[in-house]
Predict the 3D structure of the following.
Amino acid sequence: MSSDLVMYEEEFQQIDEELQRLFQQANAKVVFLVDKNGQLIASAGDTHDIDTTSLASLTAGNIAATGGIARLLGEKEFTILFHEGEKDNIHISLIGQRVILVVIFDKRSSLGLVRLRVKKASETLVRIFNELTNKSDREKSEGKTEDSPFAEISDEDIDNLFK
């Protein structure tokens, strides 16, 4: 997701609903959506026992490292990663070159089910993010985006404040 992309309430609700649907249909423990900078966008499931900030940044690092491996092998990118543990598994997928979808699941689900549900959710998420980009671009071109609340504050104003 580009850093200047604005998240609107309507699209955030759609993203949240899609993550909740994926969480239920894949019989997952937790579902996360993370941007490529490692910032958590949204989640579904029980996140109380998980350090979501660390998981988000480590996932983004994992995607970046795997991207380096892909380039060494002449690939553009590996869009799906899977890690199998003794009790939990993690399925990580790059969605539309913008965001990272993370599904944590255990033996109550299967990799096949998760992959099937992630494929469907990915299509919906790509559509939502395309709408978000178009909406943001439209508002920028119409001059509707609000300037930063700090736009009218100069460095001199800040210096005077602390003198």
User: Anything to note?
Assistant: Strands lie at 30-35, 40-45, 80-84, 89-95, 99-105. Residues 156 and 162 are 10 Å apart (CA to CA). The chain has four helices and five strands. The first strand starts at residue 30 and ends at 35.
